[in-house]
Amino acid sequence: MNLSRRSARPVLSTHNVHEVGIMESALALVARHAAGHGDRRVSRVVLRIGALAGVEIESLCFAFGVVSRGTVAEGADFEIEEVPVAVYCHGCHLEFAVETGGFIFTCPNCGDLCGEIRRGRELELSRIEMT
Ligand SMILES: [Zn+2]
Fold first, then answer.
1. CATH class held by domain 14-84+120-130
2. What beta strand segments (E) does the chain contain?
3. Which of 23, 71, 112, 119 has CA atoms 20 to 30 A from the CA of 129?
4. What is the Å distance from ligand 1's center to 95 Cα?
5. SS3 readout for 92-122
């Protein structure tokens, strides 16, 4: 993208402001990590995002391109590990995956109603690779 005739930063629309904030926090961590390793350049950043984290993957990728500019992570590969939702049943101790969000799920094994979400809310830095 050639931005030479436009402002230094593209204008952010309101729908991805949330993701930009997340990316700013993540890249602050990345920068601190790189500084601790002699300011080496970062070649890959991997975030772990749960299906219930309330984050739009596409917006997050866009945010990475914008926020990483001028940082040690500029030009690095950006990857997302998506974590599916897993619910725990206290009735039969089964942990099962669900496709969609929600608060109450029916156990596929015993039919109990379960509300304990064990995975799917992750929003964390998974891995940083440096050259
Ligand atoms: Zn069950």
1. alpha beta
2. 42-50, 77-83, 85-88, 95-98, 105-106, 113-114, 116-119, 123-130
3. 119
4. 8
5. CCCEEEECCCCCCEECCCCCCEECEEEECCC
* Ligand 1 centre distance from Cα of residue 116 (Å): 12
pLDDT of the residue at 102: 72
The pLDDT score that the predictor gives to residue 10 is 53
DSSP state of 69: T
Q: Which sequence spans correspond to the domains of the chain? A: 14-84+120-130
88-109 pLDDT, tens per residue?
999 999 999 998 767 789 999 9
**CB-based neighbours (< 5 A) of ligand 1, an ion:** 89, 91-92, 94, 107, 109-110, 112
Q: What's at 53, amino acid-wise?
A: A
Q: Strand 85-88's sheet: what is its strand order?
A: 95-98, 85-88, 116-119
Residue pLDDT, tens place only, 40-91: 899 999 999 999 899 999 999 999 999 999 999 999 999 999 999 999 999 9
